[in-house]
Amino acid sequence: MAAILKKHKIKSDEDVRGNKEKTFTISDILKLKSPTSCFLSTNKVGSSLVQFTEFKIRDLVSNSELFSVKKNFDNNFFKSLEKGETTIEEFGDADRTVHYNFSKDFFKLKTVGTTLVFQIGLKEIKSFRMIEKHYFKNKLLKSFDFNFGFCIPSSTNEIETVYDLPKLDEKTIKEMIANPKQTTSDSFYFVDDKLVMHNKATYTYH
Questions:
Q1: What does pTM read for this prediction?
Q2: Tens of pLDDT along 60-69?
Q3: Would you tell me which CATH number, out of the four given (2.60.40.10, 2.40.40.10, 3.20.20.70, 2.70.50.40), belongs to the domain 16-90+100-205?
Q4: CA within 20 to 30 Å of 74's CA: 28, 48, 61, 130, which one?
């Protein structure tokens, strides 16, 4: 299943952040310097191509686990979807936003690793890419760009990614601790250079 592209010339960062009417390119997303004011895709197309089943965050130095989530996945999901026996409901905003709660000791870490497990549908994915942007009070802290490459049809994939955390001054760290959920991120997922998923997250440090 392919997403439908609409031609649209980007005039400004604001044009990218608040426009719901187009399908965005990788180039569009790379230009962003502040959080989007809305979700830029429905996730419905993406969910018919790939399903995320497990996600972990850990400190690479101590190997201690900071966050973990796993969902039950029916191995017949994509076949049932193809036959019309299963449908994908539209995602609500609340279902697409994760709220992380970390200890303030998180700021002592220099590098964290994530493990992402996902299932591919009945069709191959030639290129699977994630661009993630992190902000504090609408200011860009750091961008991450991961290319997962080619994915075999009906395969289970486990991807390890490494995040080199940005260096922050003490004033910024104190402000981030004092302002829950003002630290945010946008995660954009591209299949064959088409945006098919967009999720958000907020961060609280205590």
A1: 0.84
A2: 999 999 999 9
A3: 2.70.50.40
A4: 130
